[in-house]
Amino acid sequence: xxxxxxxxxxxxxxxxxxxxxxxxxxxxxxxxxxxxxxxxxxxxxxxxxxxxxxxxxxxxxxxxxxxxxxxxxxxxxxxxxxxxxxxxxxxxxxxxxxxxxxxxxxxxxxxxxxx
Length: 115
Ligand code: AMP
Ligand code: ZN
Description:
By secondary structure, the chain is an alpha+beta fold. The chain contains three helices and five strands.
């Protein structure tokens, strides 16, 4: 828990969120400014700042997060049409919140060019 981190506060239930999945290691909640009909954020409950900060010992956690994102996509009906998982890293990657998170986006075409 990093005391000035908004996503640690969400994980700790100090800030409200619309939770779509939770277990002891991760939380998934609706993005407050959705870019697609389905836009969830998956975060580890422990504070990891960026992709640069993941460690070999985080491998199982990250693997489980991908399994849960896949299951969540299926549950929300976006598996067969498809979806996008995004993780932004630092300034040039466009990371606004410095707590590792994966965006799960779907429910519309994200392909470019559209088609
Ligand atoms: P990023 O630019 O990859 O760091 O993405 C941060 C995301 O967090 C953005 O899509 C924001 O809309 C989202 N966000 C910021 N604050 C909250 C919040 N309190 N609850 C839900 N989503 C949030
Ligand atoms: Zn944090």
